[in-house]
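User: what does the whole thing look like in 3D?
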Amino acid sequence: MVYVSRKEHFNAAHKLYNPAWTDEKNKEVFGPCANTNWHGHNFELITTVKGIPDAETGFVVDLKALSHIIKEKIVDRLDHKNLNLDVDFLEGKMASCEILVIEIWKILAPEIKAITPQGELYSLKLYETPRNFVEYFGEA
Amino acid sequence: MVYVSRKEHFNAAHKLYNPAWTDEKNKEVFGPCANTNWHGHNFELITTVKGIPDAETGFVVDLKALSHIIKEKIVDRLDHKNLNLDVDFLEGKMASCEILVIEIWKILAPEIKAITPQGELYSLKLYETPRNFVEYFGEA
Amino acid sequence: MVYVSRKEHFNAAHKLYNPAWTDEKNKEVFGPCANTNWHGHNFELITTVKGIPDAETGFVVDLKALSHIIKEKIVDRLDHKNLNLDVDFLEGKMASCEILVIEIWKILAPEIKAITPQGELYSLKLYETPRNFVEYFGEA
Amino acid sequence: MVYVSRKEHFNAAHKLYNPAWTDEKNKEVFGPCANTNWHGHNFELITTVKGIPDAETGFVVDLKALSHIIKEKIVDRLDHKNLNLDVDFLEGKMASCEILVIEIWKILAPEIKAITPQGELYSLKLYETPRNFVEYFGEA
Amino acid sequence: MVYVSRKEHFNAAHKLYNPAWTDEKNKEVFGPCANTNWHGHNFELITTVKGIPDAETGFVVDLKALSHIIKEKIVDRLDHKNLNLDVDFLEGKMASCEILVIEIWKILAPEIKAITPQGELYSLKLYETPRNFVEYFGEA
Amino acid sequence: MVYVSRKEHFNAAHKLYNPAWTDEKNKEVFGPCANTNWHGHNFELITTVKGIPDAETGFVVDLKALSHIIKEKIVDRLDHKNLNLDVDFLEGKMASCEILVIEIWKILAPEIKAITPQGELYSLKLYETPRNFVEYFGEA
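Assistant: Here's the predicted 3D structure for the full assembly of 840 residues, as structure tokens:
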């Protein structure tokens, strides 16, 4: 069982904002992250697939195919976008890293299953900045 | 003559957009960087001061004082902000890194002169991403 | 269940030295790390909290609050200090990274519990250099 | 129980190539990674040992001894080498990262056991590039 | 005058080898870098263009166009290649970083002039490893 | 003319302290950097040599020879040392980065001249932390 990882990046705007709250409460809870006119980040996403290396290729998963799927299904929908306004799969959800990583998992897990018979998605690690990041293992 | 540098960071939203152009022309020239609803970056700013080290302190410039001025005059006005909408010193200007670094120079150069009798601002290096960055030496 | 991490840093001096041993034995076992007059590092500390994201904020833990507690309880007591001489919670202990990370856990675990009802400290990762680091999960 | 890590590096050439296949099939499956005349990488290897810190030294494992063994048993056999042609322990095997990390484990696990009575090899993380990497925990 | 930089990467094999010398002399002068069966690196190339920002775009050079040219003219000819065997513009030349960076300059300088009326190639910085790198400013 | 660089590192303790001043004045001017019992850093030193590549080797300077001299003349005298107490060439001098980089230049410049007929020391860049660093070009 080997764990294979691929790192991709996207640049996006967002704000932390609960629409059920007043602006004042949003500023109080989220501070500068609630700035009305948005702010943004260079996000880095590390996708880790675990599985048994294939005897003929030595691969758990073809990294070119994995990279292609992450770009098509995730990066193209997030890069140079506003996470609160432009992303269908985040509609009606908080644009925090915790929520984002869970929603990315829902999309990527079946896609990865489809390209690697012997592997499966193991974890997603999402860096908002080099000092703030989240990781998700699909646990309820 | 020694060159002393301090790196600070800020997270901001922006878009590349020339208001004299149609939306179509903006998309054509700037591509995804013109996304209507903004995108964003983790910016890194390296400020370099050159001068003769002071005989008593061994300092060209007190890095605590330099860091304080960069934060007060630049980072506090850019961090968690929208470069096109929230920053007074960028009003009416393109929010490209090239223009931003020139405007930061105009603010920082006299401030740095004021805190270091034997030094002066030498260069500003601004990273938009680890792969895209600009540098300015105050040259016309 | 999402794992949220915050990285903080501190610069400190230390030496590896067992007071029960002669200087010769210390030099023999610890080599240059036992240098009488100390040496030092830029330490990086990654604190990871695991928990269920809160429905209203999207947060497992407020990273501003987490950062504040790490700074107040750990960084302010270690930064620009001598780990062998200046740190009350290391008194009578080896100033190795292994011991340091266990002692930091004892302090941070209850503090983090207090600021996040739905989360708890999951791991501490301490870099002494980019090539030498330790991780602790609170296991006995 | 503390996890102690040491990062080492080596520069090597390789290609992905299954000798049971035609050149055409190799190019089709492995793409540019099958380039006849090889390509190469700066590999980074992180070795993690878990164990109880020793009461007298504060060490799970002496990092100087660990580094020495990794260099002698692994780095000296891979650095400035061709993974397909020059490495005895890869003979007849695919030179993919997945296979390489498993073969390194077989060599390092008993060596590490021999230098640390209270510790054992926990994981190996091998970076082929900063964006592609694998991890192995000795799982069948 | 602003200096704008773009970082690209490629993975290649090479060896240091002077065909006018015996194998023994090559090993003596170049050490492990002369390994008969090659070794390799993850190379990083930083291309810096200097010029006056355009009034309408705020650009010295369109980074998408710059990146496209570097990829088409340089990266596609070096990535996943053997610098000694596969690269036409290095034929009959030493595959050292010093020579490589000069040959890249000859190709890129006119290409960059063609895409930016107000700018020109200022420098090329080529990392062989994070610890070994060269820079070239077109000086004879 | 090509500029060739080599990065080396050392871990050292120091404090900023002017012995002509009272402890109070030292704390006032240098803040936590004056901590009586020292603090420390992972220093990184980048040595840049400029020159014409040799026709037979393709080298401005043999990086193995350059690395050997930096280690023998500088790193071995600074690594795991106290810059204020253990380093003969800093005796009676402020242990600031500005002063340290000038003193390193005095030692390295003639040593580098001796190993490369066609090159000479061009600059020294010394990182105290990833955010604080100095550069020196031998200018009076």
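In plain terms: The longest strand of chain B covers residues 2-14. Residues 2-62+77-136 of chain B form a domain with the Tetrahydropterin Synthase; Chain A fold (CATH 3.30.479.10).
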